[in-house]
Amino acid sequence: MGLIDIELFATLDLVAQAPGGPDEDPEGFSFGGWQAPLIDEVSGAQVGAAYEGTDALLLGRRTYDIFAAYWPHQTDDFGTLFNSIPKYVASRGTPDLTWAGSQQLGADLGAAVREIRDRHEHVKVVGSLNLVQTLLREKLFDRLDLWVHPIMLGAGKKVFDGGAVPTNVTLLQPPVASPNGIVHLRYGLADGIPGTGDMSAPDQ
């Protein structure tokens, strides 16, 4: 069984909407492209390393449309990778799947994601916040890579925007901060649900 990895860029107040550019997801949001001024060599290398071994992409409709308009024309390392591996698209509509290697998932998203996990070793979910909420709710992920950027926006779609349920995760590696203050956090899904306790209870 393979791994489903969620890759997200977020602000300190966990806004994850439109990090890449002004036209990415402008609905009700005026800070599109907020990530660009903060990227540095260290965070860029972290992102590159996170994609090593990726053999499939799992994308929501909006992210797929953005990727399909851009990556087929790129020949850098990411372009070569993305153009060569299967792309699975979660959509209730009828997306234009002209990007080579693309296919739409069926109506039973949970079953489709489980089938993808069985078929591939290392599946990446990029952006796709609506899809991410479903994966969080159903605990259909294995790892969450979160790059937290040192800004607060106070508005926009958030990482845990209605999808989170009581879930245990474990930190898979020590957090690493880049020179510009971007902190990379890598969590893995863990068994069980969060426990509770009483901080005022005397030591046993």
UniProtKB/TrEMBL annotation:
Residue ranges annotated for the Bacterial bifunctional deaminase-reductase C-terminal domain, each copy included: 7-171
Pfam families: RibD_C (PF01872)
Superkingdom, natural source: Bacteria
InterPro entries: DHFR-like_dom_sf, RibDG_C
GO biological process terms held by the UniProt record: riboflavin biosynthetic process
Molecular function as annotated in GO: 5-amino-6-(5-phosphoribosylamino)uracil reductase activity
Protein name, as recorded: Deaminase
